[in-house]
Amino acid sequence: MSDASPKVTVLMSVYNGEDYLRESIDSILGQSYGAFEFLILDDCSTDRTGEILRAYESDDNRVRVLNNEENKGLPFSLNLGLAEARGDLIARQDADDLSAAHRLQMQVAQFEQRPELVAVGSWFESLDDSGTPYGWSEPTDTSQSIRDQLLEGRNPLAHGSVMFCKAAILNLGGYDERFWYGQDFDLWLRLFAQEGASVAIVPDYLYKRRKLPSSSSFKGLCQARAGVVALQQHRSGNRIEFQDIRQWVREHYPESDQPDPVVIGKYWILLAITAMNNKKRSLARVYGRKAFGIPRLGIRLKGACLIALSHLPFNLLTLRRDS
Predict the structure, then answer these.
(1) Do 134 and 119 fall within a single domain?
(2) Please, which pLDDT band fits residue 28 given cuts at 50, 70 and 90?
């Protein structure tokens, strides 16, 4: 890295991400836009993540690695990255996701054309655990539409797909570190509540977000609880005190961190429904068969129904993700 400050800092935090980390890093280092640094926070990983990061840091002077001495969570790590970032624009990147080669170039161009912007997102693809695309999301390119969806409890933006103005986020106090999960939803609520805060969406699939299965319901319950608390805080107009979300979930759902095959089954059901809604019949059947293989009657029935529905004309049905 030269002494001149880069315009963009690509900011990633990773914890035990060895499986997809190289592919994710390579997607950034292969960008058509060159004026960036790549700042990666290793959140005290116990797998080969640290070894992988050290190799990239020694081979490419755009890569800078910081290490947490203990596992502190994503919002803490991102705030540390914001404090260390040299760029005025921050491009998020999650450690198991992929960016298109022209992503940074397209998003920087939006900031240059529209100085009033505080954030730029994009359309994005959803990948399963094997890297197969099963869903395509096209957020609406209006700030008001995004605000409305957030206030309805929906987050239309893929966190890792967003480039934002560092000063705007620092003026908010950065990420709220109490939100171990759902920190981006809380951040967008606060950011887009600011008068004049504008967001643009690049109408191109610049990002691929990987959705991985979970063996228990704990993470999903934490994310749901975080959304409820973030909306409560937003509607109050003030910072509110609340119990640690992870502890709240453990108290109210004491078995939520235990392995549960139903959670895996729901993962395949969600992917099957999303694939169906994107007119990917054969892929929906693949996911439906995986759901049918889960040893729970309710999941097996849903899997069988989805396989059957995948043979119907698409003009006869529109599936709901919460079915």
Answers:
(1) yes
(2) very high
Residue 42's CB is within 10 A of a number of other CB atoms, namely 22
Structural domain ending residue among the three candidates 150, 175, 210: 210
- Cα distances (angstroms) measured from residue 76 to each of 40, 90, 176, 225: 13, 16, 8, 19
Residue 145, C-beta contacts closer than 8 angstroms, at least 6 positions apart: 139, 156
Which pLDDT tens digit goes with each residue over 229-252?
Answer: 999 999 999 899 999 999 999 999
Question: What residue numbers bound the domain in which 268 lies?
Answer: 216-316
Where is the domain boundary, 189, 210, 231? Answer: 210
pTM of the model: 0.93
pLDDT at 271: 98
Give the total number of structural domains in the chain: 2
Phi-psi region of 173 (alpha: psi -120 to 50; beta: other; left: phi over 0): left
For residue 41, give the 3-state DSSP assignment: strand
